[in-house]
Design goal:
40% strand; mainly beta; eight-stranded antiparallel barrel; 1 helix; Lipocalin; 121 residues; Uncharacterised_Atu4866; Putative ligand-binding protein with streptavidin-like fold
Length: 121
């Protein structure tokens, strides 16, 4: 007896930052286009600007136009895409379609297990 089940092998290669983002709650998606208007600040928290982790391993720049650019130590390709502000959090939408939540806490951002502080501090 034969069945119509075919085994599919997925050869997707993810770097450590992508795997960490997925493990920490990042969700894949298909909508990574630019925002039509800049994000609104519903919490009054100023998230636009440059952020970095204390050890310098993660750097993130949130621009007023709703786009972001980031660097993660050990990752070959810089992160870039768009973001949305949703209450007390920010959702990064990578060009690859990965969605990563970023939480705002006491003037810091928490992203995939990293605490980011304003880059000037």
């Amino acid at each position: 007896m034969t069945t119509s089940c075919e085994h599919r092998v997925d050869f997707t290669v993810l770097d450590a930052a992508s795997i960490l983002a997925i493990a920490m709650g990042g969700v894949g998606g298909t909508d990574a286009g630019p925002l039509a208007t800049p994000p609104r600040m519903s919490t009054g928290a100023a998230v636009v600007g440059a952020w970095r982790s204390p050890d310098g391993a993660v750097k993130l720049r949130l621009r007023r136009d709703g786009t972001y650019a980031g660097e993660v130590a050990g990752r070959r390709r810089p992160a870039r895409g768009t973001y949305l502000i949703d209450g007390e959090s920010v959702v990064l939408r990578d060009d690859s379609g990965l969605h990563t939540p970023v939480y705002v806490h006491d003037g810091e951002l928490e992203m995939a297990g990293h605490r980011l502080r304003p880059a000037g501090v």
